Amino acid sequence: MKIGAREWEAVSGETVRVPDPERLVHLQFRRFAGCPVCNLHLRSIVERQDEITAHGIVEVVVFHSSPAELRPHVVDFPLAVIGDPEKRLYVEFGVGSAPRALLDPRAWGPILLGLARDLGPVLRGRRPLPKPEGGRLGLPADFLIAPNGLVVAEKRGQHAFDQWSVDELLAHAQALTSKD
Q1: Contact at 8 Å (CB) between 154 and 162?
Q2: What is the DSSP letter of 113?
């Protein structure tokens, strides 16, 4: 699959170019604003952001929530976050939803951990209560897009916590640079 050049407005107001003319783009599709499972995964991305950037990767995260709903949840994220409440990008990239997102037993541990980690900040008023705009059953997906627009690797999740780890992302990037 090849992606034509486009620009999106991130919830922060910045313009995001996909593909990026100089770096790989890790295009992530997640669920709704404040999703505890998504937050659990995105924390791992944020914690290793310097390492990801050093591998020539820029992060772009799409949620099926409106920008207004996303802003309070991602105010401190050093990542480009795109709101897609109409799910146009989800349709374009073939990212779906299914009951197995939450019913697959492999997702239950991360769901419980995510809920436990996010409950405190919500109860203390530091984070708003999530509103699952677009539904709770979204499946994650990851795409690695080269500067020429070619999708060089992808993963379509089978449950809510089935996405690339940072190590898997870096391995894909390393494999590309070792071919040069």
Answers
A1: no
A2: H
The answer to whether the CB of 7 falls within 8 A of the CB of 15 is yes
- CA-to-CA dists, residue 78 to 31, 110, 112, 131, 132, angstroms: 18, 23, 25, 22, 23
178: three-class secondary structure by DSSP: helix
Which residue is associated with the tokens 């599709």? 29
Q: What is the CATH number of domain 6-179?
A: 3.40.30.10
What confidence tens digit (pLDDT) does each residue in 51-84 have? 999 999 999 999 988 888 888 877 778 889 999 9
Of the candidates 171, 155, 173, the one whose C-alpha atom is nearest the C-alpha of residue 24 is 173
Residue 171 clears pLDDT 90, i.e. is over it: yes
Local structure of 31: helix, strand or coil:
coil
List the structure tokens of 49. Answer: 């952001």
What SS3 class is residue 16?
strand
Mean pLDDT of the chain: 84
Identify the DSSP state of 3: P
